[in-house]
Amino acid sequence: MAHIRLENVSVALPVFDNARLRLIRVPNFTRTKVGTKSIGKNSGATVIHALNEINLELNEGDRVALIGHNGAGKTTLLRLIAGVYPPSQGSVSVGGRVVALLSGSMSLNSDATGYENIQLVAELYGWPRDQVADCIRDIEDFTELGEYLSLPVRVYSAGMAARLAYGMATQLSPDVLLIDESIGAGDANFQEKAEARAREYSGRSKIVLLASHAAELCRAICNRALLLSGGRQVFFGDIDEAFDRYAKLR
Known about the structure:
By secondary structure, the protein is of the alpha/beta class.
């Protein structure tokens, strides 16, 4: 049965120096604030306390909007549920097939064409063979990439690659659907098409979590909301009340 259960969950992320691939160490560092997330020293290493003591239980039929300012912990929570991040504290239980529409969640082979990437994903995720042709036609129509689908992905813009990844990911029928609005999918006109697809796609899922700043989209898809601030759970319940509280936070 599809479910999500988080009990007293926290996520602490170490900060790495990309150039030297080592943990950044700050002499005499005790504790401070950067943006909205608490940062502290742990055995000499700098860590970001991205989520703090989150408790959440979702079952079939729940469609939850994740709201909060940038840096509140929305994407981190989605990545935790998707299995990208392990909890630093607490327990996580997720039942059912999970599909996560997150930034970079469906990597593309840059040397393969768009069509070849579709075939690779179809094999990887076990699309029914008798439905692959229909899926390709749907992706052609949705992405509006035309002849670019016959070209290597390395010549795509970031928006074009996002369209292809989004089109492929939404061919699946998950039990748990995680959507991060920050995935991006092209220009403003295409964003409207992507939002319409998100509405339709979410209706086929048993549990939906949507991280978004768009109140209209959240109300169209979701029946409840979880408000986060500084990695902490501020409110979980009625979506209108959640947005009222969010407005006061801002």
